[in-house]
Design brief:
- It contains three helices and four strands.
- It has about 110 residues and is mostly helical.
- It has two domains: about 1-55, 2-Layer Sandwich (Herpes Virus-1); about 55-95.
- The longest helix has about 30 residues, at about 60-90.
- The structure holds zinc ion (2 copies).
- One zinc ion binds near residues 9 and 12.
């Protein structure tokens, strides 16, 4: 970056540029740039980057996501207990009476 010293800030023409924004390619002074995700970026590009994120995490979106997660967990829990009930019903009645354990080795009293 040998040509950086001759460049001036896009917003402040009296100030020397310290960095070039990778988003728009313009040169900026220390005051006009900020760090975002380990990258040096200008304020305009930072706003552009953050806007879709704000839209995605709107309160309505979060509420819908939370309600969907709650409904899915409730459904999963209900299905798990339903399967356990099915298995318990499929076990023969002899098992519940305790007679299934009686065989030639352990005859009923
Ligand atoms: Zn930029
Ligand atoms: Zn500046």
């Amino acid at each position: 970056m040998s040509g950086l010293h001759q460049k001036v800030c896009l917003n402040h023409h009296e100030r020397e540029a310290v960095a070039r924004c990778p988003g728009c390619g313009h040169f900026y002074c220390r005051e006009c740039i900020s760090e975002h995700d380990g990258r040096i970026i200008c304020a305009a590009c930072l706003r552009k980057l953050l806007r879709p994120v704000e839209k995605q995490q709107s309160p309505v979106f979060r509420w819908v996501a939370r309600a969907t997660a709650f409904g899915l967990s409730l459904l999963t829990g209900w299905y798990a207990f339903y399967l356990v009930g099915k298995i318990l019903l499929s076990i023969p009645t002899d098992f519940h009476n305790g007679t299934v354990w009686h065989n030639d080795l352990f005859p009923p009293p």
